[in-house]
C-alpha cells in the first residue's frame, strides 16, 4: 500500500510538472498582417480593351513586384520581396486615368495584406491613395514615363494601347492593416 501511495504521488508530481511547462508559441500570426514603410515596385497595367485618345470606362488587371523596407507585423526588415496583384475598374485614355482597385500585397510569399486604392493621373504620372482593408493609409506615385516611347505614342493615337509598364513608389502614412 505504501508503494501504491508513492506511485500515485509520483504520477501527480509528473502531471503538475507537465502543466508548468509553457506551451509552444503559435507558429502563425493570428489576425490580419500589417506593414509600415516604403516600397518600390515595377508592374504592368493590362486593360480589358485597348485605350486611345477618348476616355473609356473599363476593368483592368495589374501585377507588380519589387521590394519594401519597414515594419512587417511589427518587425523591422529591409528589402522584403513583395508582389501586388490588382483588379479594378476606371476611366482611361492615353492622357487621363481615374481608377479604383482591390489589391493583395503578398510580402515574402506568405504575409498578405488586402488594400483598396483610389488613383488619378494625367499623361505619364499618377497619384494613388491606398487604404488597408482594416486600417491604415499610404500614398503612391506611379510613373509610366520610363517606358513611354514613340511606339507607345503611336499605339495611343491608333487607339491600340492594351498594356503599359510602370514604376511605383509607396510611402505609408499609418501602417496598412489588412
Give an overview of the whole structure.
The protein has 178 residues and is an alpha+beta fold. The chain has one domain. It is built from two helices and eight strands. The protein has helices at 2-20, 150-157, and strands spanning 34-51, 56-72, 75-93, 96-107, 111-122, 125-132, 135-143, 161-177. It is elongated and about 50 Å long. The termini are far apart. The relative contact order is 0.20. Mean pLDDT is 87; it is low at 1-28.
What would you say about this model in short?
By secondary structure, the chain is an alpha+beta fold. The protein has one domain (34-177). The chain contains two helices and eight strands.
Protein topology:
Elements: H1 2-20, E1 34-51, E2 56-72, E3 75-93, E4 96-107, E5 111-122, E6 125-132, E7 135-143, H2 150-157, E8 161-177
Antiparallel strand pairs: 1-2, 1-8, 2-3, 3-4, 4-5, 5-6, 6-7, 7-8
**General form:** elongated
Name the poorly predicted regions.
1-28
Largest sheet: 8 strands, antiparallel, barrel
Order of helices and strands: HEEEEEEEHE
| Overall pLDDT metric | 87
The helicity comes to 10-25%
Q: N- to C-terminal separation?
A: 62 Å
- Structural class comes to alpha+beta
Oligomeric grouping of the chains:
single chain
The largest beta-sheet arranges its strands as: 1-2-3-4-5-6-7-8
Beta-strand content bin: over 45%
Radius of gyration equals 25 Å
Q: Determine the number of helices (DSSP H or I, runs of at least 4 residues).
A: 2
Query: How many domains?
Result: 1
Count of distinct strands: 8
Amino acid at each position: 500500500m505504501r508503494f501504491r501511495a508513492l506511485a500515485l504521488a509520483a504520477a501527480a508530481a509528473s502531471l503538475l510538472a507537465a502543466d508548468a511547462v509553457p506551451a509552444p508559441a503559435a507558429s502563425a500570426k493570428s489576425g490580419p498582417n500589417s506593414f509600415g514603410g516604403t516600397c518600390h515596385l515595377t508592374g504592368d497595367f493590362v486593360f480589358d480593351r485597348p485605350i486611345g485618345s477618348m476616355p473609356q470606362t473599363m476593368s483592368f488587371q495589374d501585377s507588380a513586384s519589387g521590394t519594401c523596407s519597414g515594419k512587417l507585423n511589427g518587425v523591422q526588415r529591409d528589402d522584403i520581396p513583395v508582389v501586388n496583384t490588382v483588379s479594378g475598374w476606371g476611366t482611361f485614355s492615353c492622357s487621363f486615368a481615374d481608377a479604383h482597385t482591390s489589391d493583395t500585397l503578398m510580402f515574402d510569399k506568405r504575409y498578405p495584406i488586402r488594400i483598396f486604392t483610389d488613383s488619378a493621373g494625367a499623361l505619364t504620372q499618377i497619384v494613388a491613395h491606398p487604404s488597408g482593408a482594416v486600417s491604415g493609409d499610404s500614398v503612391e506615385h506611379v510613373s509610366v514615363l520610363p517606358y513611354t516611347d514613340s511606339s507607345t505614342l503611336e499605339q495611343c493615337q491608333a487607339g491600340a494601347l492594351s498594356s503599359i509598364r510602370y514604376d511605383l513608389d509607396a510611402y505609408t502614412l499609418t501602417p496598412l492593416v489588412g
